[in-house]
Amino acid sequence: MLAVGFLDLDAFKPINDTYGHDAGDDLLKEMARRLQDVSRRTDTVARVGGDEFVLLLEGLRSMDELDQVLARFQATIAQPFSIKGEKVTIQASLGLTIYPFDKADAGLLLRHADQAMYAAKARTDRASEGWVQLYNPDVGTIAMGHKTLRQDFLRALRTGDVTLRYQPLVALRTGRVAGLEALTR
């Protein structure tokens, strides 16, 4: 199995605002080092911008092994950071999708992990396992207890918070409309 994760540090902006951007950058470097230190040899940890990291957890033999890897990540994130002589704790949100259960290509796997990360951020049950949200490819939405992104999206459409627009798809050879793409705004 391959788990693709999108990890975002929660409430990172106040750290930059309180301690300065240099201290924030130092924290990000330390976070990257810690994540790398607890990773398996086959795992990849990459900072993709700001306070976001991508995790590629290759060669997982079982969900139990995934749980063990995630427990190490959570434990290292929970350790306090030293910033200008102060101990600072930080939380993170992790969205995961798992191949081959999610049979998407690489770009879509990353997008699914990113969507799951935003669902993890929105969760109110942020206890020990609440920091991770798994993408559910069977229903095409993120499993979030009794809610789903689909339900939230349909509610936003009904209330006018989101509008649906159709954009024509034009065939390059003929210049004719070949279909429509649905967009939300």
UniProtKB/TrEMBL annotation:
Q: Which PANTHER family match?
A: BIOFILM ARCHITECTURE MAINTENANCE PROTEIN MBAA, DIGUANYLATE CYCLASE DGCP
Domain EAL: from-to ranges: 146-185
Q: Which Pfam families match?
A: GGDEF
Q: Which Gene3D superfamilies match?
A: 3.30.70.270, EAL domain (3.20.20.450)
Task: State the InterPro entries in the record.
Answer: Biofilm_reg_signaling, EAL_dom, EAL_sf, GGDEF_dom, Nucleotide_cyclase, Rev_trsase/Diguanyl_cyclase
Q: What is this protein called?
A: Diguanylate cyclase/phosphodiesterase with PAS/PAC sensor(S)
**Residue ranges of the GGDEF domain?**
1-137
